[in-house]
Amino acid sequence: MNGPNIWPPKPKRDHLVDIFSKRRVHRKINGGIVAMLFASFFVASPLLADGIVNRQTQSSDYVRTLTRHASTNSLDSIVYNPAGVMKFENGTYAKLDSVLISKEYSNTIPGYGKFEDSNTIGFIPAFFALHKRDDWSVYCSFTVPGGGGIVDYDKGNATSIAVANGLMAATPLNTVDAMNVKASSVYFGYTLGGAYAINEKLSMAAGIRYVDANIDAESNLALSVNGFASRVFQIDFEQHAGGWGGFAGINISPSEKVNIGLVYQSNTRLSFDKDIHRDDINAVGTFAKSREDLPGLIGVGVGLFLRQDVRLDVNYTHYLEQEATWEGRLDGQGGSYDLTASAEYTLAPNLKINLGCRKTHMGIDPDRMGAESPELSSVTVSTGALWNPGHTWAVNLGVAKVFYDAAVTSQGTEYDKDAVALFFGVQKKFF
To answer: Which CATH number covers residue 148?
Structure first.
């Protein structure tokens, strides 16, 4: 059952005197609990996440194939296989991508029912540019390497229930009249780098990336005593952090039929400052700053041409979460990875179709997951097409479906998600 007035039976009026007399003691004990709940759980995690914080879905080509660490045919190699751009013809290129996501998130809580995210659409943009000349190249990109989502639980969720219970334990308030939780999280990534071809079989790349991370959170709780004298508690704050990281890559082509790509991304230190607009219960006021880095990663991919018109790819990505500093909810968590495979078939000289599959493992305990967008392990399947209408154009489009593994906390709360991604990208060679 959703909505307000879902708590256990209201106390009898003769019990209110005892509740009022213990109000100060309960407030002192539970105020800290409420603050820790908000500091630990009030977050919006990445759309189509691959690590606990990282999001690997940074291009339309990635959604199309799910295997990009050995890629050499699209500008998104700047992110996934930066040394692979040396396989491009000389010239200047630009690429614009968009990924549209239809999502359904839910918290099912014993005794309270199912609470759902009412914001069902997400959008991820990306831009890449490259100038390649003989044995060197320079490039830049704009992507979203973390976050990228908005959630809106207009009837509340596990976080608001926990906070409401903490408030009711600290005050004579005993009825929930209304509640909602809204949060957003987006990490903008700005990359600049270059690559150099040592010979036809070996190239290397390196660069830097600046990450601008922004998190907004807002909640409203309307509580009353037996339905009378309703009181509204509001929490509204923002968090912001910026940090630098580096990356390096190697591309190896031992033969015309085999290509191997390796990429390393360093940890990006992110110390979040809070801008508190309103905090009626001092839930976040004592947490002026918190550390939650964007972890680095190691990725390796192998591409193999079985025939001239059939290519197979396998990728492995390991997220270096143990090297990141995480405070609060994520402290001590980590060990995420994903394993992917894809097949590409050339139907015509200017048309290719793909099938991809990915298994993602999240290294996080259900009790540490964010209720707003829980970090669930998953299996993803995708299909799409790459069309080259002319020598200077490339267009790709398609769809991907994510099948999440529901998780249950030690308190019996079930987290579940569902997502479908539609993607479109266009690449242009200018000269």
So the answer is: 2.40.160.60
Residue 331 is which amino acid?
D
Angle at 364 (CA atoms; ends 246, 187), nearest 5 degrees = 40
d(CA 328, CA 215): 16
**pLDDT tens track for 305-341:** 999 999 999 999 999 999 999 988 899 999 999 999 9
DSSP 84: G
Residue 6 belongs to some domain of the structure: no
Q: Domain total for the chain?
A: 1
What does the alpha-carbon distance between residue 237 and residue 318 come to, in Å, rounded to a whole number?
33
Spacing of C-alpha 201 from chain mean position: 35
> Residue 265: which of 364, 341, 191, 326 has the closest Cα?
191
Q: Name the residue among 92, 230, 215, 218 with its Cα closest to residue 153.
A: 218
Tokens of 117: 């995210």
Strands 228-255 and 258-265: antiparallel
Tell how strand 296-307 and strand 271-279 pair up: unpaired
Helices (H) and strands (E) in the chain, counts: 5, 18
Rounded Cα–Cα distance for residues 360 and 422 (Å): 19
Query: Is there a domain that residue 2 lies in?
Result: no
Instruction: Provide the greatest CA pair distance for the chain.
Output: 86
Q: How far apart are alpha carbons 407 and 376 in whole angstroms?
A: 7
Q: Is 62 helix (H, G, I), strand (E, B) or coil?
A: helix
The answer as to whether 4 is a domain residue is no
Residue 3 lies in a domain: no
Sequence-separated (6 or more) residues with CB below 8 Å from residue 83: 195, 203, 204, 205, 249, 250, 251, 261
Structural domain boundaries, residue 368: 13-429
CB-facing half-sphere around the CA of 339: CA atoms within 13 A: 2
Q: Which amino acid is at 36?
A: M
* Contact status, residue 62 vs residue 78, Cβ threshold 8 Å: no
**DSSP code for 30:** H
pLDDT tens, 23-80? 332 333 344 444 445 544 455 556 666 899 999 999 999 999 999 999 998 999 999 9
